[in-house]
Structures are given as C-alpha cells and as structure tokens.
Amino acid sequence: MTEVLSKQQTIELRKKHIGPSCKVFFAKDPIKIVRAKGQYMYDENNERYLDCINNVAHVGHSHPDVVKAAVKQMELLNTNSRFLHDNLVQYAQRLTATFPEQLAVCYFVNSGSEANDLALRLARQFTGHHDIITLDHAYHGHVTSLIDISPYKFHQLGEGGQKEFVHVAPPPDIYRGKYRENHPDPGAAYAEEVQTLIQEAHKKGHQIAAFIAESMQSCGGQVIPPAGYFQKVAQYVHNAGGVFIADEVQVGFGRVGEKFWAFQLQGEDFVPDIVTMGKPIGNGHPMSCVVTTREIAEAFGASGMEYFNTFGGNPVSCAVGLAVLDVIEKEDLRENAIRVGNYLMDLLKEQKEKHPLIGDIRGVGLFVGVDLVKNRERRTPATAEAQHVVHQLKEQNILLSADGPHKNVLKFKPPLCFSVEDSKFVVDKIDEILTALEKATGARVGNGNKEVVENGVCKRKAPRHSNGVPEQECVNGTGSYFAGTACGQESACHTDNHVVSCKRIRT
Ligand code: PMP
What's the CA gap between 82 and 72, in Å, rounded? Predict the structure, then answer.
C-alpha cells in the first residue's frame, strides 16, 4: 500500500502535528510522493517526476541492492557499536580505501550535522584553539554549533548573528566574486583573504582551530574553487596551528565523477585533515561519517572523554554503506557522472548561446549550476526568473532547484543514474521556458547591456539580508518579489496572474 491518507488529509495532519518551520517543497501546491525508482519519483496518482536534485538517492531511489542489504541485516541483528561486528570494520576499511592514506580513521554518526559538529570538536581538541573560518553563504548543518558557522543561516539573524569566534571569508567564486576568471591567480587571491582573516584574528588575540568549506559550495551557488585555492588556504591555516575540514556532505561519493571526493579535484598535493560526509552515503538511510588522521583521532582520545554514539556505525547502516559502495563500482556510476554530466553541460552551453538569461554554466560530473542573469555584463542575478523556471519545470513534472545567495543558480545534483535522455528532456524544457520568458520580456542574446527584464521592474531590498545582496527585482511591475532568506524557507513571486511558489529546494 502506497497511500493511506488522501493528499488533503496528509496536508492537514502535517499542519497540525509538524513544526511550522519544517517546510515542504512548493508550499502552495506541494507534491505527495509515494514511491520512487532510479531517478524518478511518483505521486499518489502515479504521475512521474524526473528528479534532478536528489543527491541523497545517490545510486538511484530504492536501489534493490541497498534495500536487500538493509533487510538482510535487519533480520539478523542491529545494535550499537560496543559489540564487535564485521560490518563496522569492513565498511571503515572500504571507505578509508577511497581516501589518501593519511585519512584512515572513521567516526560513524547519523547526519551531516552530527558529522560537522564532531569535526569541530576534533579540530578544537587537536589544536587547542577555538575560532573557525567559514566561507560566506556556507551551510554546514542545523545544530547550534553549525548555525554559528553557517552564514547562509546566521545572516538571517541580522546584527549580532555572527559570533566573535567566527570569521567569514569570501567564497572563491570566479564568476560573481571579488576575483574573477580574468584574474591571473584567483586561487591565490582568495586564499590571501583567508590569510588576512587569520592575521586580524591574531591581532584580537584569537586563535584559529579550523577552516571549514565544502569542497564545492552547493547552497552557496555551485561554486567551484579555482586551482590552488585549497592548497594555499591549508598552508595558511596550518601555519596558524589550525586544521582544514572538507565538507563533502553534498558533493562526495563520486558525484564529480573523475574523483571519488570533490576535494581531490584540487590535486594530489592537497589533503584535508578532516572530511565529513552524509547524504549520499546511505542512499536515504540516515548515516554519516567523519574521517580524519590518526594524529587528530589520538588527540581527541587523549582528552579521556569517551565518544559514544548510539546509532552511529550500527550493523544495518554499515551494511547499507557497503552496498552503496558496491553499486557505485558495479554500475560504474562515476563514469556515468562524467559522461552524462559532460553531455548535460554541453547541452546547457548550447542554450547559453541562445538565451541571454544564462550568464554562466559551471559544474563537474553531476554537480552542475546554471547562473541566470538579467544582464550578462553586470551579472545581475535573475532571481525571479530562476524561480519562475523552477516552478514551470515542476508543472512539467521535473524537480529542479535554485540556490545561491541570490537564489538565481539552477542547481543539478541528480541521482548518479541520471541519463543522457533525462538531460535532453530537462534542457529542452528549460529552452522552452526561457524562450517564452525572453519573448515576454523582449530580451536578445548578444547585447550585454540589455536588461532581460526591461519594463515594469520593481525593486525592493531583500529583507533582513545583511550580506550585501543587491536589490532584488521582479518580473512584472504589478508584482513583488519576496526574498526567502532561510535555507529551506519559501519565497514567492506574486504576479498578476498567479503566485509562483519560489521555494528554495534543497535536499
Ligand atoms: N553540510 C552540507 C554541505 C549540507 O548541505 C548539509 C545539509 N543540507 C549538511 C551539512 C547537514 O546535513 P544534515 O541535514 O544531514 O544534518
């Protein structure tokens, strides 16, 4: 049985019993999903949706090998890790084999947030320092310690949101950031910003415990760090006695294709001190892990405080984790990520020739961003247009999201079984939507100065956005755009004819 309640009953019960800050996608007209397979999800009427955003269902929704592994172990035993069990050590061995040699010690936990919280503890215990350097617009998790180091969240608190032990570095964004693609060495320039933060912290008597960053920023707008950035940052942070934490919660496990971990794209001469992972690790089963060096693990142990986690590393989770690794290999999903990702990027690049709304296409493997702009020269974020595309795609049973500080970056991070046919299908639909949008607004390609939205532009400040987000604009003078500032909060574009739900979709 897939559906017990009517959709309306589900909505009503949810309103009654679920905390109001737990939002659904497309709040005005939410989708009820009752089953899923591969890269497709099905609603209560058996309508099929193409899932372009689910980086949790990494090897495909409900993959039979993963399901079988879980059931088989559940039938036999599930318990905590205080007993010896082969699954735990076998999984730790398999997982660490995907890393450079020095990253050899695992702590199993249950969510990305737990992993990052533990990473902070490891860093602080090892270094004896407290302060954290984080990237602007970063999101690292929902627990108190991580809200503190997630500008994506604490910016919403306005003045006073940033704690004094937190130092915010500019994201190494060569499209929209301070140093761009025409800079001779943007990696070094962005790393220099981190060095300056370290020096400023020292002047105030603060000491750096860690620099934390996603290996490629996801919520931050699909930012791919320039070559050499991580190496230089690691050097500065190590000189300051801190450690480098790479958050691979969204981008790990072969999503980038060429490498198993996205940090490895920076080159073999870069190895983080701590790596955190989550989402794809269990293909939907809640599990996570922190991997670190023996030296850091020993220092953590030396505190004398035992680390115990009731569910972390239980035999079922480890069986699931092993099955996910098997499927990635057996189905050559990294190769698929390269092949399909390249094809998707090529199709999108063709669209860029055609549509002035597309400012930038960036990505690696099946982690791809399409940066929509009103003006190519000024790179003005086309926020309302991105939300419009997301909404229109949903009407055509395609699930895509828009993210980044301006919520104007269309974000692809599908299950790794995504196909060339899926890519063609979604890009054709984007083409249709952009064509209609540009027709309505009179935009032309090849005129860098021409605003995509010329008439009836209304401007208003994005509420409570303290991070330099420019005025937002909306399509249609009679409408208004309300910037949703919370990760996972809904925002809406109201126009004459309809209210477009502008939910920031993130899984
Ligand atoms: N780090 C990153 C980069 C994330 O995107 C997320 C979740 N979106 C987390 C950490 C937190 O993971 P979880 O929701 O599993 O706690």
Answer: 21
For residues 284 and 369, state if they share a domain.
no
Which of 330, 354, 377 is the last residue before a domain boundary? Answer: 330
CA 211-200-467 angle, to 5 degrees, is 70
Based on the domain organization, do 96 and 200 belong to the same domain?
Answer: yes
Q: Is the pLDDT of residue 471 over 70?
A: no
Is the pLDDT at 480 greater than 80, yes or no?
no
**298 CA → ligand 1 middle, Å:** 26
- Ligand 1: list residues with CB < 6 Å: 111-113, 116, 139-142, 214, 218-219, 247, 249-250, 278, 506
CATH number of the domain that residue 7 is part of: 3.90.1150.10
The best mutation among 23, 113, 212, 504 to test binding of ligand 1, ranked by most ligand atoms within 8 Å of the C-beta, falls on: 113
Calculate mean pLDDT across residues 313-328.
Answer: 98
Q: Which of 111, 139, 276 to probe ligand 1 with, by most ligand atoms within 8 A of CB?
A: 139
pLDDT at res. 444: 63
Structural domain of residue 317, as residue ranges? 64-330
- What's 288's domain CATH number? 3.40.640.10
The token duo for 51 is 């899932």
Which residue type does 162 have? Q
Q: Which of 97-101, 413-417, 498-502 has the lowest average pLDDT? A: 498-502
Which of residues 291, 306, 330 is at a domain's end? Answer: 330
**3-class secondary-structure state, position 468:** coil
Same domain, 154 and 209: yes
Which pLDDT score, from 0 to 100, does residue 156 have? 85
Q: Please tell me the residue having the least CA distance from ligand 1 atom 12.
A: 112
What count of other Cβ atoms lies within 10 Å of the Cβ of residue 296? 22
- Whether 273 and 356 share a structural domain: no
pLDDT tens column, 423-453: 999 999 999 999 999 998 877 654 443 444 4
ipTM computed for the complex: 0.99
Give the orientation angle of helix 333-354 with respect to helix 420-441, to 10 degrees: 20
Quick one: average pLDDT of 155-174?
92
Residue 236 or 472, more confident: 236
Q: What is the 3-state secondary structure (H, E, C) of 21-52?
A: CCCCCCCCCCCCEEEEEECEEEECCCCEEEEC
